[in-house]
Amino acid sequence: MKELENTTEEPKSENETETEYYARKKKKVVVQHTYSFFDVQYLANISTGTPGQKFRVVLDYASGNIGEDTVKFLGRKRTRIRMKKIEFGQASTLSPAAEQSLFEGIIELAFRPIVNDNMTPPLIFAMHRKLLAKPIFSVHSRAI
């Protein structure tokens, strides 16, 4: 994987995307800023583990797996969603393209029917734990 000097630095992009999660307790919108890398990859920063470490991940809608056991979507401080003891997977090999990419992991946002190894996807996990008011997430893209 390509070394990054500053993991929290946002990639250069033409488009910014916001993903909204409706937090249950405070009934506020959690906004996760994501960045389009030439409309090929959509990247977001997440925090994993204790203490939290930030990683730049690709938002993927194909399988539903994740690469860490605790995930925080990095919205505004008071509107973050934290999921503990979540199932995760680890890649055993990387393609040459993945080794040169701007991301450090993949977070899958798929629903159960297409998940690998019967793992619970992060959004379904959040719904089961009542972390979301409604089983909805939306993605809004705009050119900047």
From TrEMBL:
Q: Per its UniProt record, what Gene3D superfamilies does this chain match?
A: Acid Proteases (2.40.70.10)
- What residues does the Peptidase A1 domain cover? 62-140
Would you say which domain of life the source belongs to?
Eukaryota
What GO terms are given for molecular function?
A: aspartic-type endopeptidase activity
Q: What are its GO biological-process terms? A: proteolysis
User: Which Pfam families does this one have?
Assistant: Asp (PF00026)
A GO cellular component annotation in the UniProt record: lysosome
Which family does the UniProt entry place this protein in? Belongs to the peptidase A1 family.
Protein name, per record = Peptidase A1 domain-containing protein
